[in-house]
């Protein structure tokens, strides 16, 4: 009778064989059938290989739990393929054949097996009986003397934690409180993922959420305690469901050095036959190739666990060599503190002689006699260790080590066994590493191309700083801070802070503001900076010891929970990369990891490439900002400082310079006092736009003021200005100019004397709505040496308006249409009774609405109005 079942379908690709093995192993472990796992995995591997490799079809695998054992079915979708027929008398020849070995293994290992056909598929099944065991027994180890037993604290605590289907904690026992510092009230309802320091990189292998969904899982990871530190634990997860059918997971957790309390018994590794049917005894036999080919992290983690079990060690680790083979990077470990787990780096040559080099096998009987011989094991309590190199074609690709707390545990025999295992796994590890490195490099190129485009798209300093941080978080680091240096004599200033968790940005900024900035060293490459992690841990410790309201540092990280969260967030490795542009350090890019995490070498190299691009972009933004400020300051000096108050007159000006970033162009205006009761006004247009035209603008405006205040009349002022323009030689440009003198009269009117040198004629708006030119055209300036100019007198009555504009107004175009003098006159006729400011605003609005495109020429609008006299009241 079938009491439980699990099924999965696998695609016709090579990696499906490994996935099928892992599926069967997990299913049987979850059902508590360790005695038949090895046989089931071997048979499944052969049958799935026949289906996906030889038959080339999908493979359907069904695991069924029965009262007497386990039935496994492997179905392919190639029913017409014939089964190989073997002559019983030729059994040995059949074993050596390429095909049909799966059926021979079924006959040798299974209790029962068979083949079934249907119209669409062929199914090979086998049944494995469970061995008879006395009630109440499972497995047993040999009796050991007291000194050989595992060392534990005064009391072994087993934390029992229950997690619901959403991954949130629903139960938390007293031992969990004692181990991790949180009470049940504090932790109930929170996701386990917030506490778990999972040893694998997300996206590349099983994560905490995936492990909680497995029927059974067992292994090492870390739990962040109430003090912010990560506590290494060994855990056993069991998937259960209650009477209502709702699934949940029960987790048993102990300290990692006490894992013998929970760890499932391993198979005998001494070389003895595991059973009379020839069960595999080498822990690496079933393991080799079982993870997916591109799952490097899973491959390495399972390697160290099997290596530790094979030599009955307390810890194991695997390191991969960098490209130049000068350093080794920790990529997987078990039984070691979490700080030693990921991406920590040690030199290949740690000392003199064969024992100090990772290129040769080495056995240390007692590390206490040679302190520092294996830097990775410093302060871990490990006494004896055996390490062997991983080599491919004679090149060092990594190092595998197993350590024990007791001295003298290992000798040459163990080193040979471990070297044999390392030789078997080295090629698979190197293949997976190269695949991962290729994917990372392709991603790095795409990342740098996108980063370069984004950085090149802005010349704003603040936006450049924000882009630098946003490109690094969370792609390269958990948090980022950018320091800038204004000049060689300035101290580094914290300019931008970003964390992948927005709620932690303020706390991180407060922490970094209390830490002295890193030294601006121009040496290329990343260097480690320990100050943030030390400050965060100190702040968390002070917060945990203080009484609320009694510690002045309580506000450092916004409260106790924030203190621990920020300590965990910045407690890992922090590196500083200099921002060097044009042979000067202009800042530092700081990248950080959460508690006990390290940066991998490839990420640091990518960050260094990014820092070079970001430094140049930041310096370009600085130079652009400085030159823009200088340009704007010079341009503002070409404009009048302000309009004077003219008694008895309303005056308003609207000025628009064409071109992005230009405040002054070829058009200009001015209104200034000449002598008592008289004011000079001007509006002009230099040929062209931009800085060259603005230079002539400055010459014209300052010359007009100087000449007018010397007492020259209008024609004389313009004749001398014409000579000054011609004296500029090749830099001279012709200029249209309307110049006049304004004198308010006692009767409320205003007298104007004007000279219109090639400029659009001024328009006079009377109170009755009629519009007429207020001057006659005369030759423009900057073309001829001898000019004969004359001035005309215009009287503005109360309510009259004099409108002066540049050709940017009259030559406004929409396709073939142009506003022109007639269009301007038509708009002005609607301005009767409006103030000077309202008249100028209406003219500008009419110009803007005339065409969809923004104006491409400079514009100046000068409106002067004589206000009506108010009636006298008795």
Rg measurement, Å: 43 Å
Beta-strand content bin: 25-35%
Terminal residue distance: 118 Å
Average pLDDT value?
80
Residue ranges: pLDDT <50 for 5 or more in a row?
82-99, 200-205, 266-293, 547-561
> What summary fits the major beta sheet?
6 strands, antiparallel
Biased composition (Polar residues): 263-278
GO biological process, one term: regulation of DNA-templated transcription
Protein name: PAS domain-containing protein
Pfam families: GAF_2 (PF13185), HATPase_c_2 (PF13581), PAS (PF00989), SpoIIE (PF07228)
What does this entry look like structurally?
The chain has 874 residues and is of the alpha+beta class. It contains 20 helices and 34 strands. Strands 7-6-11-10-9-8 form a 6-stranded antiparallel sheet. It has a 6-stranded antiparallel sheet with strand order 14-13-12-17-16-15. A 5-stranded antiparallel sheet has the order 1-2-3-5-4, covered by helices on one side. The N and C termini lie far apart (118 Å). InterPro entries: Bact_Sigma-Reg (IPR052016), GAF (IPR003018), GAF-like_dom_sf (IPR029016), HATPase_C_sf (IPR036890), HATPase_dom (IPR003594), PAS (IPR000014), PAS-like_dom_sf (IPR035965), PAS_fold (IPR013767). Keywords: Hydrolase. Residues 262-290 are annotated as: Disordered.
């Amino acid at each position: 009778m079938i009491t439980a079942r699990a099924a999965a379908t696998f695609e016709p690709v090579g990696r499906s064989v490994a996935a099928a093995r892992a599926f069967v192993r997990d299913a049987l472990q979850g059902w508590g059938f360790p005695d038949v796992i090895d046989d089931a995995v071997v048979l499944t591997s052969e049958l799935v290989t026949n289906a996906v490799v030889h038959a080339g079809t999908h493979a359907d695998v069904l695991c069924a739990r029965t009262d007497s054992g386990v039935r496994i079915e492997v179905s392919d979708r190639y029913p017409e393929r014939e089964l190989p027929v073997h002559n019983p008398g030729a059994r040995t020849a059949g074993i050596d054949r390429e095909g049909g070995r799966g059926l021979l293994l079924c006959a040798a290992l299974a209790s029962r097996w068979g083949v079934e056909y249907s119209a669409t598929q062929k199914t090979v099944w086998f049944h494995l009986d469970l061995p008879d065991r006395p009630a109440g027994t499972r497995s047993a180890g040999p009796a050991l003397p007291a000194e050989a037993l595992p060392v534990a604290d005064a009391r072994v605590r087993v934390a029992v934690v229950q997690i619901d289907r959403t991954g949130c904690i629903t139960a938390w026992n007293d031992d969990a409180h004692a181990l991790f510092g949180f009470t049940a009230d504090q932790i109930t309802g929170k996701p386990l993922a917030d506490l778990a320091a999972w040893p694998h990189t997300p996206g590349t292998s099983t994560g905490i959420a995936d492990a909680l969904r497995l029927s059974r899982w067992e292994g090492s990871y870390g739990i962040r305690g109430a003090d912010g530190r990560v506590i290494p634990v060994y855990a056993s997860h069991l998937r259960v469901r209650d009477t209502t059918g709702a699934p949940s997971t029960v987790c048993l957790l102990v300290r990692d050095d006490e894992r013998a309390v929970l760890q499932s018994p391993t198979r005998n590794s001494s070389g003895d036959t595991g059973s009379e049917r020839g069960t595999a005894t080498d822990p690496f036999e079933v393991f080799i190739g079982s993870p997916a080919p591109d799952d490097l992290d899973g491959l390495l983690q399972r390697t160290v666990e099997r290596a530790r079990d094979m030599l009955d060690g307390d810890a194991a680790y695997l390191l991969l060599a960098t490209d130049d083979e000068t350093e080794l990077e920790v990529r997987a470990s078990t039984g070691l503190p979490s700080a030693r787990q990921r991406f920590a780096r040690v030199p290949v040559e740690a000392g003199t002689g064969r024992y100090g080099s990772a290129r040769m096998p080495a056995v240390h009987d007692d590390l206490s006699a040679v302190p520092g011989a294996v830097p990775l094991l410093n302060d871990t309590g490990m006494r004896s260790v055996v390490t062997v190199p991983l080599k491919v074609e004679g090149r060092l690709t990594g190092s595998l080590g197993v350590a024990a707390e007791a001295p003298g545990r290992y000798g040459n025999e163990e080193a040979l066994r471990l070297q044999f295992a390392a030789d078997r796994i080295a090629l698979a590890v190197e293949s997976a590493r190269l695949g991962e490195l290729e994917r990372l490099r392709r991603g790095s190129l795409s990342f740098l191309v996108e980063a370069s485009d984004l950085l090149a798209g802005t010349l704003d300093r603040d936006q450049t700083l924000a882009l630098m941080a946003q490109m690094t978080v969370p792609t390269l680091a958990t948090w980022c801070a950018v320091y800038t240096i204004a000049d060689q004599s300035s101290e580094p200033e914290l300019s931008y802070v970003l964390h992948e968790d927005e709620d932690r940005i303020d706390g991180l900024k407060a922490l970094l503001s209390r830490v002295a900035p890193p030294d601006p060293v121009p040496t290329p490459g990343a260097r480690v900076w320990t100050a943030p992690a030390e400050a965060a841990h100190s702040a968390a410790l002070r917060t945990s010891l203080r009484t609320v309201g009694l510690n002045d540092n309580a506000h450092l990280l916004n409260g106790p929970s924030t203190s621990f969260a920020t300590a965990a967030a910045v407690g890992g490795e922090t590196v500083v990369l200099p921002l060097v542009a044009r042979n000067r350090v202009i800042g530092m890019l700081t990248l950080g990891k959460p508690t006990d995490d390290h940066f991998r070498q490839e990420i640091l190299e990518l960050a260094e490439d990014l820092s070079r691009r970001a430094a140049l972009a930041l310096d370009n933004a600085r130079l652009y900002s400085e030159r823009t400020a200088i340009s704007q300051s010079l341009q503002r000096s070409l404009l009048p400082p302000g309009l004077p108050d003219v008694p008895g007159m309303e005056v308003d000006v609207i000025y628009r310079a064409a071109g992005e970033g230009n405040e002054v162009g070829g058009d200009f205006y001015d209104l200034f006092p000449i002598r008592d009761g008289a004011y000079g006004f001007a509006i002009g247009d230099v040929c062209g736009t931009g800085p060259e035209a603005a230079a002539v603008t400055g010459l014209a405006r300052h010359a007009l003021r100087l000449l007018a205040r010397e007492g020259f009349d209008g024609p004389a002022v313009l004749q001398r200005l014409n000579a000054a323009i011609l004296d500029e030689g090749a830099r001279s440009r012709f200029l249209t100019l309307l110049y006049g003198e304004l004198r308010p009269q006692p009767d409320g009117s205003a007298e104007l004397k004007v000279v219109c040198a090639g400029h659009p004629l001024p328009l006079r708006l009377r109170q009755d709505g009629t519009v007429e030119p207020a001057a006659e055209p005369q030759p423009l300036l900057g073309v001829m040496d001898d000019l004969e100019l004359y001035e005309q007198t215009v009287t503005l009555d109360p309510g009259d308006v004099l409108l002066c504009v540049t050709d940017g107004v009259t030559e406004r175009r929409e396709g073939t249409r142009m506003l022109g003098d007639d269009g301007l006159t038509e708009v002005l006729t609607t301005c009767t009774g409006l103030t000077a400011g309202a008249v100028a605003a209406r003219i500008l609005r009419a110009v803007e609405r005339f065409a969809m495109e923004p104006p491409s020429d400079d514009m100046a609008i000068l409106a002067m109005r004589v206000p009506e006299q108010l009636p006298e009241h008795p």
